[in-house]
Amino acid sequence: MVQYHRLIVHHGRKEERFRVSVEEVGSLKKAKQKFLSYLFLSILSCCFIMSPYLFGFSTLSLLDSFIREDEALRSYEPVLAPLCSEVSNGTICCDRTGLRSDICIMKGDIRTDSASSSLFLFTSTSNTTNPQKIKPYTRKWETSVMDTVQELNLIPKHSNKSSDRVCDVYHDVPAVFFSTGGYTGNVYHEFNDGIIPLFITSQHYNKKVVFVIVEYHDWWEMKYGDIVTQLSDYPLVDFSGDSRTHCFKEATVGLRIHDELTVNSTLMSHGNNKTIVDFRNVLDRAYTHRIQSLVQEETETTTTTTTHDLKKNPKLVILSRNGSRAILNEDLLVKLAEETGFSVEVLRPDKRTEMAKIYRSMNTSDVMIGVHGAAMTHFLFLKPKTVFIQIVPLGTDWAAETYYGEPAKKLGLKYIGYKIMPQESSLYGEYGKDDPVIRDPDSLNDKGWEYTKKIYLQGQNVKLDLRRFRETLARSYDFSIRRRVREEVPDLFVS
Prior knowledge:
This protein is an alpha/beta fold. The protein contains 17 helices and 15 strands.
């Protein structure tokens, strides 16, 4: 279950003070009107010169601070380059300005000590670099989960050859240290908090980098190994499970993160203008070989039929849910979609479902339908220009748009948010039309996460009004047909 903890910064007091400043300016303008007209220009000139004294330094600095703060908040994650783009040998540089994560960069003789959760930076001369502590996980602002994440000690140390830790494994490429603790186990958090930030942080190394995992899990490597091999040419290192001393000349501790399930090209370091489409291309390369093997494993008859159907009708995939937020009339939805003209596949992935199989289904589909939840993360597997229909239950509007709607648009998908009517929610029969649960979901959400989780996430199912939903299916079908025609037209001119 995705944890709905918003990043909210209040400007109330500063806005109020700023309004007072504007009123002061207004009163000064009225006073100026009393002066003779032929002195107006000279007085105006004096005002420019004397403005710090007329308006007060505090007012001007407040305005400047307000503007700068507003500019900084346009992105969740500030550009790292000004702080740690240049790191001297034998030093540690930490950027703690980001709201989502801290980043520390070490250069020099770096040696691991898993027993003490430490990275030692050995220097031959006295060093003024201070020791640092960091939790290499990308939900810095969420205290409850960060309390569960293992902390690393970054310790500068004067070299004494006789007592220095001996290198058991020497690496001639840099390292990136990150945690797979926290909310790992939820597919949304695995991509948003881990895989995509790993892509962002490691791109400039061009696969010449070693990934060192804090709170390592075997299943995580099995699940995401195909992606990891597209980002690094080297085996993963289990920080806690490998007691050997690993030595590096450079290390990045922590991951950079931009926003929900996306890559912001303007924030990429080292002149790297990658986007979320480039990340999806990594997924394509990661799963191609395995998908080819899956195709070979199928019988020739099944493969031929599937290929024929895909060419004949647009393919629609329904991501089915068990338990809460299930589509109660899913069988009728399948029938309606087929009557509309789609070839329909109902996909029921669980934690044991191979990622390559899910990717194959999504990558060959024209439309994906699912009810808001972590499984919507699989929109990343859709090809750009295909359709993503997210069914939005009561009380989940903000989360659905923020976590999946906006990111889907950035990937280039045709996103449709289908907000259900109260009568389409199972809560309608339970609470009645006049209850705040139905009439005013925001008032319940404002009470806190526990209310949202219990009522709208764990306690709600959906029964679609198929007469209403028919229009969404028809629009999606027409869009898919037009897209296929546009893509096939160029082929007509190829001899």
